[in-house]
Write a structure and sequence with these properties.
22 helices; Beta Polymerase, domain 2; about 50% helix; Hypothetical protein af1432; Hydrophobic Seed Protein; alpha+beta; about 425 residues; 3 domains; globular
């Protein structure tokens, strides 16, 4: 808090105030651990006034009255109180007007919990819209009419779902769900990147299963990932406890939440690494709708669904959801191989070891574990067997030294370039097959 305090003291020389809004306020009221560095600052000072006493690094979105300020080698985004007039594509205000009124600034905010102001100087809350009471009661409520707030910025629909399940909040009105259904189509006007940013945050929270169900109920999935939305129409078979593939997908998602807390194998990328796994689980069975067949006893089957899925993903979903090239490659590989993992104990040693050397193999283990947790019977022994094979191989791999092209050229100078590659592969395969250190 020291740096905002310093900024506040400088603004005070102009008889201006500094306030903190958004996450800091709601989490402080909820008695949650707060990322003190992750704060949003607002002031009644205009950008020109701020420039008189603060070091302005960058005027961003000048028409939105926002500046980046540097203090003690840290940067802070400070926005001047404003009124938003009109809307462009249900996302941005058509016009922004400066105001020195905190109350008027609060009326443009989305939820009452986000319209609480913390006075940096007095260290006290200012609450013009009843946000403190709502936050204490774990209620999420729009400032004024929900439909108007969504017309101004349709992304608030996804933000509503994210905050509701992040903090386990209750709806302030039973009408919200119907309003969301009527206005979810407004999200079509927004860039996919912005939708993905909010949706990604929803996926990596522990209450993601409940959030996904709400997104389905308000028709978001039908609009943006229809392949997932129809999974509740696809029946499961006798090898699963779940009634349909949507229930299975949600149960897998819940298992992944548990695995993240306990899994012995590390994923070093943090949240971004887990995000790939969540998308893999969400999408891994979408081809079952295309491969559903019944045998003579009316037992359902989904032969080759992992390969059919790969084509659906490449041709439709990956571009629609605007995945990066790396994300496309990782999700594609994980789902295409999520059945193959089961066969490792029966594979030839060389094939199995090459498979286990893939950089995504540890992620594949986690996907397979989450996917098979509810099979009948539960095959805990199988994942333990495969994990044991992998960990034993990792120990062996630590002591192996593979050859490179220079090694082959120095040993076999008579070989031509194509023969060099063939000899390199052959000798490295031999090294890979050896069990000794």
């Amino acid at each position: 808090m020291q740096n905002p305090k310093t900024i506040s003291q400088k603004l005070k020389t102009l008889n201006k105030k500094l306030y903190i809004v958004w996450g800091f306020c709601r989490e402080k009221i909820m008695w949650l651990d707060n990322d003190w560095w992750d704060i949003d600052l607002v002031t009644d000072a205009t950008p020109d006034e701020m420039k008189k006493v603060l070091k302005i690094v960058w005027d961003i979105w000048q028409k939105y009255w926002t500046c980046i300020v540097s203090e003690w080698d840290e940067t802070f985004e400070i926005t001047t109180f404003r009124k938003d007039i009109g809307t462009i594509n249900n996302r941005k205000p058509a016009k922004v007007v400066f105001t020195d009124s905190l109350e008027k600034d609060s009326l443009r905010r989305d939820f009452t919990m986000n319209s609480i102001y913390f006075d940096v100087d007095t260290e006290s809350f200012i609450d013009p819209n009843g946000g403190i009471k709502d936050t204490q009661n774990r209620v999420i409520r729009f400032v004024w009419e929900a439909s108007d707030r969504l017309n101004e910025d349709a992304l608030r629909l996804l933000r509503y779902v994210r905050l509701k399940y992040k903090y386990n909040l209750k709806d302030a009105s039973k009408d919200y769900s119907e309003i969301f259904k009527k206005q979810v189509h407004l999200l079509n006007k927004l860039p996919v990147e912005r939708l993905r940013q909010e949706f990604d945050k929803i996926l990596i929270w522990n209450n993601n299963v409940e959030a996904l169900q709400e997104l389905k109920d308000i028709w978001f999935l039908k609009l943006f990932i229809p392949e997932v939305d129809i999974l509740d129409t696809i029946p499961w078979n006798k090898w699963h406890l779940e009634w349909n593939v949507w229930i299975h997908t949600k149960m897998c998602m819940r298992e992944l939440n548990k695995i993240i807390e306990k899994y012995p194998l590390l994923i070093k990328e943090g949240d971004r690494g887990w995000l790939i796994l969540y998308y893999t689980i969400l999408l891994h069975d979408i081809a079952k709708a295309n491969t559903l067949t019944f045998d003579e006893s009316w037992e359902s089957h989904y032969f080759n669904h992992e390969n059919i899925w790969a084509e659906i993903f490449k041709e439709k979903i990956s571009n629609r959801l605007n995945f990066t090239n790396n994300q496309k490659k990782e999700i594609y590989w994980l789902i295409k191989n999520h059945i193959k993992l089961f066969l490792i104990p029966e594979m030839k040693k060389l094939k199995a070891r090459k498979f286990m050397m893939h950089p995504l193999f540890e992620k594949l283990l986690i996907v397979w574990d989450a996917d098979n947790r509810w099979r009948i019977p539960v095959k805990d022994w199988k994942i333990e067997q495969i994990t044991s094979i992998y960990l034993e191989f990792k120990e062996i791999l630590k002591h192996k030294k593979f050859l490179n092209g220079n090694d082959i050229m120095s040993r076999y100078p008579e070989l031509e370039w194509r023969k060099i590659g063939e000899r390199l592969m052959m000798l490295n395969d031999q090294i890979l097959l050896e069990d000794g250190k």
